[in-house]
């Protein structure tokens, strides 16, 4: 065993020992390589362990052995972004709750975890994000929101046929959103039955990815049914403030979420970053380190 991997293992054992302490509620391990069973033996951390993996197959294998696992997209984000994506996914699935202390271990995609981070749910992850903001309220279906965040990350990362694209996806309060918007292009979802246009269906998510080239916004009902694509959001709220450098698309998302009860995901064409707006504010911001071209 090389010195580096020997140290990796010592680092992991030290993390497991910290995770076993009474103050820690969960140990979020963000890696596709499960911890060797011998390292988990007699560790209190074992029952607190939640894996975040990039492959559904690995997640299924872990679940089959009664371990907890969630799937995050396989993109090359920074370590902090990987922690954010995994925490959002865990929160939206109800695996963590307000006030929980989560010890997060992460690293670069495809490498051994090299970073340990402690996060208090409800505390601040960085200057402009509180994980608390990500708790969206009971009217939202967490599976729908989680699926759409993952989809937005894919759109930001992959673009369309190698070209960067941006989009807005509103979720919830559809009656008000439809009232405060107008059709800019054809609505490709018209004519399909509700069962045929729910974002919980991977085929529909693939279609949304492709239709993201259309100008305008997608309007999604709380339960995941796609009501429209290509909507121009005409709500305007002079009071909303968006960070410098963000333009009309982000301003539209801020305004529609401040004047209705919907939330809105925005993929920036310029940077590939994904931002979640609620009540006119950005409550989650996910930046990507590398874009696929
Ligand atoms: N009110 C709106 N409703 C729906 N889409 C809009 C609205 N305003 C702008 N857009 C879309 O956003 C696109 C980009 O606008 P702009 O460059 O000003 O936005 P931005 O906030 O800087 O976002 P990006 O980072 O994606 O460039 C427009 O071409 C249009 O398709």
TrEMBL record:
Domain DAC span(s) in chain numbering:
124-288
- What keywords sit in the KW lines? ATP-binding, Nucleotide-binding, Nucleotidyltransferase, Transferase
Give the GO molecular function terms: adenylate cyclase activity; ATP binding; diadenylate cyclase activity
Keyword Nucleotide-binding belongs to the record: yes
User: Catalytic activity, per the record?
Assistant: 2 ATP = 3',3'-c-di-AMP + 2 diphosphate
Question: What is any Pfam family matched here?
Answer: DAC
| Transmembrane spans | none
Q: Which InterPro entries match?
A: DAC_DacZ, DisA, DNA_integrity_DisA_N_sf, DNA_integrity_scan_DisA_N
UniProt-listed PANTHER family? DIADENYLATE CYCLASE
Q: Which HAMAP family match?
A: DacZ
Name of the molecule in the record: DAC domain-containing protein
Q: Which organism is it from?
A: Archangium violaceum Cb vi76
């Amino acid at each position: 065993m090389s010195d580096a991997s020997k140290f990796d293992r010592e680092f992991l054992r030290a993390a497991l020992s910290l995770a076993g302490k009474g103050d820690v509620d969960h140990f979020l391990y963000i890696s596709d390589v499960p911890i060797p069973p011998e390292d988990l033996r007699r560790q209190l951390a074992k029952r607190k362990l939640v894996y975040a993996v990039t492959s559904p197959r690995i997640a299924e294998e872990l679940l089959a052995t009664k371990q907890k696992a969630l799937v995050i997209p396989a993109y090359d984000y920074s370590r902090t972004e990987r922690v954010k994506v995994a925490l959002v996914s865990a929160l939206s699935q109800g695996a963590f709750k307000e006030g929980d202390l989560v010890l997060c271990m992460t690293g670069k995609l495809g490498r051994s975890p090299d970073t340990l981070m402690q996060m208090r749910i409800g505390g601040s992850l960085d200057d402009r994000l509180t994980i608390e903001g990500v708790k969206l309220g009971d009217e939202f279906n967490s599976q729908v929101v989680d699926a759409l965040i993952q989809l937005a990350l894919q759109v930001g990362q992959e673009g369309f046929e190698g070209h960067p694209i941006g989009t807005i996806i509103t979720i919830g309060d559809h009656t008000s959103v439809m009232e405060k918007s107008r059709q800019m292009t054809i609505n490709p979802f018209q004519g399909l039955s509700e069962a045929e246009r729910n974002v919980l269906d991977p085929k529909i998510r693939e279609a949304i990815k492709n239709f993201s080239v259309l100008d305008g916004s997608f309007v999604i009902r709380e339960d995941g049914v796609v009501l429209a694509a290509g909507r121009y959001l005409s709500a305007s709220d002079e009071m909303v403030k968006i960070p410098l450098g963000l333009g009309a698309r982000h301003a539209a998302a801020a305004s529609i979420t401040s004047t209705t009860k919907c939330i809105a995901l925005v993929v920036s064409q310029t940077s590939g970053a994904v931002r979640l707006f609620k009540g006119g504010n950005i409550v989650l911001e996910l930046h990507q380190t590398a874009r696929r071209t």
